[in-house]
């Protein structure tokens, strides 16, 4: 179908839709079933059977299976079956861990997928891009990703970047008219928008004509379907560590076997014991547990309104030393409210808060309402030069669109002006707001076919473009006295933390040029809006907590320096000697000059997105790990350059989200603090189970090595070693990944990004606890065995139980950097349940008679248990009274 050759009416007829109403909800559901989700096909997922079989491809497991086969051929059927069952159970555990990680990552991808503005049942709503169907009417703005192939029916200075399709990096200007040419390539179809291309300027409305694999991008994707899996720096570091640990474990295991054979033990028994010990000692589950810990931590972040797009950000969060945050919407409520109106050279005060449409206008304590000259005209202009709309959510008014535009709509409604007034006016041309222009303009034609321009924007931009001023008795020339009065008014508003917005107009003739450079001059200055966006209630506490954690909070805003200073002071962000820099000062500074003073600066005012990159570079040159927030398309370079790019989930553009590693679903600064806590905790939890796994493995190897060196019988048989591995390494290690953060996690300084895994005495803790666990187990075996062959099974049961219990007690020791006594052992309910289930599995092989000959165990009495608990608690208690 050559959509580009059709006009808008023909497209509507073909797809049974109108651009005024959009599709009905039922229609959309039917088409979603007919065409399928709007997504490109990805590489086929690996079958569950292959994932399961992958659990047995490890070299040591294959050797163990071969040894089991030999045991079966030699008639050792009980041992062979027992080992096979344990290997299968281990395989299932690994499989479920991998599935859990995969599902978490898939859910994460879905959470961070883009959404789009769609007209359904006459109402604009935000829906996930995957749910868009052919015939949907979509709205696109600067910074958005085009969600599907669309036929553009409205274009306001619309440009898209289509390098992904054409290789051409220059933006393409779009229009809505049909093209009467045949066999046009995609790059020449300038009335079409293509899936996954970026809107770099302007806004537009289009009708979806192709989704998923039926798009131009889909045709390219069908030629080469490929997905990339990347590992985080921590996963890579642990993979390297794993190789070293495997080498060490194999050397020690070989030493145990050789010494055992030398001491006269049967070669077959020592070989099987050695292989079992190697399987137990090598932390093959470490990468899987790390992935699960990362993905579970990410799930917790999602519940706290922070969506991680890149897993590496989880590690980096713990290192963050500076948070550069936008003010509006992140540190404040993002519910702009007009509190003052400067008009006719006089100041009016407006009552009412937030988006409540009830309120009044006062001058000299008198309610002036509709009687104040030019007030209705000014508020009408604010409604017309506006892309937002008021909607009702849960019985309350909310704004769909920019909060500043929303504040102007609410201000107009307080005077009784209704949106239906728009029916009397037609927008001929729109010049969208962008951060460079700092203004928005519309050319309007009224019911009498008279044209005029409305411009709103920053006062310092509009005033130089104004030649006239509106007063009570009409339009007069703008003189220096008027300008001085306006500047004083702006300063007074800024002192009250009010954001100022100027509005002006210009009468036009039918034949006037519609170029912005010509239109936006010789304006008539109408007045000023003074708006307030109150600070969020939880931000002040979050900033204080970040300060205690050694993290500096920096406010970045486009607002006036006085407004920014007032809000920063209210939030306790700006210390007494803290500096405030504005955009003008930043322009005159090099990065090196900024770097010299950057540590003293806490507020950047009147900043453009281009300044953000300069700020990031200066902080990074000083050695800081920088988190940077942003929402606009021009914020993307700074977000990408920062160590942790943070985009806004509610107000952010798709371009910014793509560049970011973290998305704030509620646009709230306090959520950044929660994410940092979670990021620090995830890293600490990974350290905890590294400490637990390796200390336990050291203990298992040493108990066997010491016994061989002392020419003693095997304290543990192969099947017991494997059972220890199954009981202690699985669920307890996983539960450590769910551990809550310690109370002082936000009282420590940021982690050094170059810090090794074994930093902060972790290596000492692993070796020392491992030696004590091994020694306690061996002593327990010696005391029970007492050199009497008749006591061997009893001694092995004591050693087996002591080793398991020592590790299960040690897991609680691993929860704290300081001591086992520093934390409530029942705080982590998952860990308690994991330990109880491990004890239950241990009890089964000790007390269930059919399994006693399989696991070489015998029933134990109360005295035995008291002795075992005393020996197994000894390693943790000894170090519990130290600060190590």
Please explain how this structure is put together.
- With 884 residues, this protein is α+β, with helices and mostly antiparallel strands.
- It folds into four domains: 1-224, Calcium-transporting ATPase, cytoplasmic transduction domain A (Distorted Sandwich), CATH 2.70.150; 232-301 and 675-880, Calcium-transporting ATPase, transmembrane domain; 306-332 and 536-667, HAD superfamily/HAD-like (Rossmann fold, 3-Layer(aba) Sandwich); 337-532, Calcium-transporting ATPase, cytoplasmic domain N, CATH 3.40.1110.
- The protein is 46% helix and 18% strand.
- The chain has 31 helices and 28 strands.
- The strands form four sheets. Strands 10, 11, 12, 13, 16, 17, 18, 19, 20, 21 and 22 form an eleven-stranded mixed β-sheet that branches. Strands 8-28-27-26-9-23-25-24 form an eight-stranded mixed β-sheet, sandwiched between helices. Strands 1, 2, 3, 4, 5, 6 and 7 form a seven-stranded antiparallel β-sheet that branches.
- Strand 27, helix 23 and strand 28 form a beta-alpha-beta unit.
- Helix 4 packs antiparallel against helix 5 and helix 8 (233-262) runs parallel beside helix 24.
- This is Calcium-translocating P-type ATPase, SERCA-type.
- It comes from Lentibacillus juripiscarius.
- The chain crosses the membrane at residues 56-74, 244-264, 270-294, 689-711, 717-738, 766-785, 791-809, 830-848, 860-881.
- Keywords: ATP-binding, Cell membrane, Ion transport, Magnesium, Membrane, Nucleotide-binding, Phosphoprotein, Translocase, Transmembrane, Transmembrane helix, Transport.
- Residues 2-76 form the Cation-transporting P-type ATPase N-terminal domain.
């Amino acid at each position: 179908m050559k959509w580009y050759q059709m006009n808008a009416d023909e497209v509507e007829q073909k797809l049974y839709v109108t651009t005024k109403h959009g599709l009905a909800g039922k229609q959309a559901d039917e088409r979603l079933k007919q065409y399928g989700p709007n997504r490109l096909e990805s590489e086929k997922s690996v079958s569950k059977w292959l994932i399961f079989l992958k659990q047995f491809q490890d070299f040591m497991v294959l050797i163990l299976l071969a040894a089991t086969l030999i045991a079966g051929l030699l008639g050792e059927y009980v041992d062979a079956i027992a080992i096979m069952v344990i290997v299968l159970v281990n395989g299932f555990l690994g499989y479920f861990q991998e599935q859990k990680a995969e599902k978490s990552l898939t859910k994460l991808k879905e959470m961070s997928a883009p959404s789009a503005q769609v007209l359904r049942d006459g109402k604009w709503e935000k829906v996930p891009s995957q749910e868009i169907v052919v015939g949907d009417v979509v709205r696109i703005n600067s910074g958005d990703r085009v969600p599907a192939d669309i036929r553009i029916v409205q274009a306001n200075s619309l440009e898209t970047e289509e390098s992904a399709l054409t290789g051409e990096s220059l933006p393409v200007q779009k229009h809505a008219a049909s093209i009467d040419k045949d066999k046009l390539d995609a790059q020449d179809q300038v009335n079409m928008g293509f899936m996954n291309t970026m809107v770099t300027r302007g806004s537009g409305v289009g009708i979806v004509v192709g989704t998923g694999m039926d798009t131009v991008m889909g045709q390219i994707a069908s030629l080469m379907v490929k997905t990339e899996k990347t590992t985080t720096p921590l996963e890579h570091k642990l993979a390297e560590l794993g190789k070293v640990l495997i080498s060490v474990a194999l050397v020690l295991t070989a030493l145990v076997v050789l010494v055992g054979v030398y001491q006269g033990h049967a070669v077959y028994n020592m070989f099987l014991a050695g292989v079992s010990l190697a399987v137990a000692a090598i932390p093959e589950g470490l990468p899987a547990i790390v992935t699960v810990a990362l993905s579970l931590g990410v799930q917790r972040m999602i519940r706290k309104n922070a969506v991680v797009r890149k897993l590496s950000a989880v590690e980096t969060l713990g290192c963050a030393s500076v948070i550069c945050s936008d003010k509006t919407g992140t540190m404040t409520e993002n519910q702009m409210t007009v509190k003052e109106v400067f008009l006719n050279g006089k100041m009016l005060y407006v009552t009412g808060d937030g988006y409540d449409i009830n309120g009044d206008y006062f001058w000299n304590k008198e309610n002036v309402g509709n009687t104040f000259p030019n007030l209705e005209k000014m508020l009408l202009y604010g409604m017309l030069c506006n892309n937002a709309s008021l909607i009702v959510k849960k019985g309350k008014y909310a704004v769909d669109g920019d909060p500043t535009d929303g504040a102007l709509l609410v201000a107009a409604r307080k005077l009784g002006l209704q949106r239906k007034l728009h029916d009397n006016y037609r927008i001929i041309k729109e010049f969208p707001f962008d951060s460079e222009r700092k203004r928005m303009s519309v050319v309007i034609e009224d019911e009498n076919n008279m044209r005029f321009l409305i411009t709103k924007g920053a006062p310092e931009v509009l005033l130089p473009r104004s030649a006239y001023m509106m007063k009570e008795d009409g339009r007069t020339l703008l003189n220096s006295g008027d300008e001085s009065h306006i500047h004083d008014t702006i300063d007074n508003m800024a002192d009250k933390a009010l954001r100022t917005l100027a509005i002006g107009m210009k009468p036009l003739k039918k034949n006037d040029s519609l170029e912005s450079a010509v239109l936006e001059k010789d304006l008539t200055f109408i007045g000023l809006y003074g708006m307030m966006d109150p600070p969020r209630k939880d931000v002040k506490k979050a900033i204080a907590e970040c300060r205690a954690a050694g993290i500096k909070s920096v406010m970045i805003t486009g607002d006036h320096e006085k407004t920014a200073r007032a809000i920063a002071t209210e939030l306790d962000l700006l210390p007494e000697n803290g500096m405030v820099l504005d955009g003008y000062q930043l322009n005159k500074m090099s990065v090196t000059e900024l770097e010299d003073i950057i540590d003293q600066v806490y507020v950047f005012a009147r900043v453009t997105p281009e300044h953000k990159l300069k700020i990031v570079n200066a902080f990074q040159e000083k050695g800081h790990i920088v988190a940077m927030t942003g929402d606009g398309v021009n914020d993307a370079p700074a977000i990408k350059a920062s160590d942790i790019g943070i985009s806004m989930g509610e107000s952010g553009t798709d371009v910014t989200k793509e560049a970011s590693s973290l998305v704030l679903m509620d646009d709230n600064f306090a959520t950044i603090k929660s994410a940092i806590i979670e990021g620090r905790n995830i890293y600490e939890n990974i350290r905890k189970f590294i400490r637990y796994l390796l200390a336990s493995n050291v203990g298992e190897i040493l108990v066997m090595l010491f016994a061989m060196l002392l020419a003693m019988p095997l304290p543990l048989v192969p099947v017991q070693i494997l059972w220890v591995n199954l009981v202690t390494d699985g669920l307890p290690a996983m539960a450590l990944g769910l551990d809550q953060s310690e109370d002082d996690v936000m009282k420590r300084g940021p982690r050094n990004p170059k810090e090794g895994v074994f930093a902060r005495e972790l290596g000492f803790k692993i070796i020392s606890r491992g030696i004590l666990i091994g020694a306690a187990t061996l002593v327990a075996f010696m005391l029970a065995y007492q050199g009497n062959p008749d006591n061997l099974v009893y001694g092995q049961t004591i050693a087996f139980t002591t080793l398991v219990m020592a590790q299960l007690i040690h897991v609680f020791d691993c929860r704290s950097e300081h001591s086992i006594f520093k934390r409530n052992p029942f705080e982590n309910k998952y860990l308690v349940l994991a330990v109880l289930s491990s004890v239950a599995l241990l009890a089964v092989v000790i007390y269930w008679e059919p399994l006693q000959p399989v696991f070489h165990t015998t029933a134990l009495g109360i005295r035995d248990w008291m002795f075992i608990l005393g020996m197994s608690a000894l390693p943790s208690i000894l170090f519990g009274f130290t600060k190590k």
